[in-house]
Fold this protein.
Amino acid sequence: MQFDTGNTGFMLLATSLVMLMTPGLAFFYGGLVGRKNVLAIMIQSFVSMGVTTVLWYVCGYSLCFSGDVGGIIGNLDHAFMAGITLNDTFSTNNNIPLLVFIAYQMMFAIITPALITGAFTNRVSFKAYLIFLVGWLLIVYFPFCHMVWGGGILQQWGVLDFAGGIVVHAIAGMAALASVFFVGKRKVAEYGPHSIPLVALGTGLLWFGWYGFNAGSELQVDAVTGLAFLNTDVAASFAGVTWLIIEWAQSKKPKFVGLLTGSVAGLATITPAAGFVSTHHAALIGIIAGGVCYLAVMLKNKLKWDDALDVWGVHGVGGTIGIILLGVFASKAVNPAGADGLLNGDIAFFFKETVAVLGASVYAFVVSYLMLVIIDRITPVKLTEKEEADGLDSALHGEQAYFE
């Protein structure tokens, strides 16, 4: 088999970029927490790189992309990479090795549960998190990956999700909200980010990696790849500036963390639509993301939900409105392999996108909450007030990020 070396090289680069997003997320979250809890939040991202890779090799890839059981999940034909050879091609359209596609999709599986951890920071035991990580991948992520991207029921129905509005951001954001309701508020209050430069470093790595996340989801190099790349940057920029302006007007000062958070909201929101909408609409999606996600965070604060690092407001709300706006702005004139949205006369596509993301959000919330209830019967999920006061770095891991 003669592989397309250009497409293969590009996809290896995109895979590497998506891998870099998980350490980027660790720095982003690590900077937002207090000095005594930096390592505890960062290890939750890094350990996903190890545990999720093992699970992906054992059964994850197969459950997502092999066969079909009731439109919900795949089968175990490719468990432990059985039956996969060096010369297998993912698709004759792009002629990349199947092994490269397996690695690329694995990076998505790694970062998705790591997103959730920002919501319950400082409150959950490491043992309980590991059980949650494995269970959540098996019961929530793998089924939705299969349903949307692996030939399952939502894909058959005509639902589109370019790079993970449903599969990544909406379900992770709703799982985060469920975890906040289950674990309750922090017993020991933290006062603001301990290192905004770390947050900025994390944002930079996430933004850089997101080009692989979105542009790479075309799985080959063509005009849509360039469109998704440009749309990613445009939406992030418009969202970051929108958030900055709104918060500046409210607080009378331009906040760096607001600019960074708004940018991530724009990145999450454009993700499902990046390859299906025009750049003009990507800019509009960015503006909407900056405003709506800011309001979601304000609502969370008013309701006193202790979503510590705004996972629901940024990723949950961002992913959800991104899918809905895809249903509005999608255009076959932009991408013939896509669909026409509400503005282009297809109300049915808009309906499918909206129903799919709302259904996925409800499922992710309910199942995630029930999982935590069950895990709590196996091992305590919540930490004691003393452990919170001592800081999770020393209480759970016997290490310190900073020595006084």
In short: Residues 347-378 form the longest helix (32 residues). Residues 5-397 form a domain with the Ammonium transporter fold fold (CATH 1.10.3430.10). The mean pLDDT is 97.
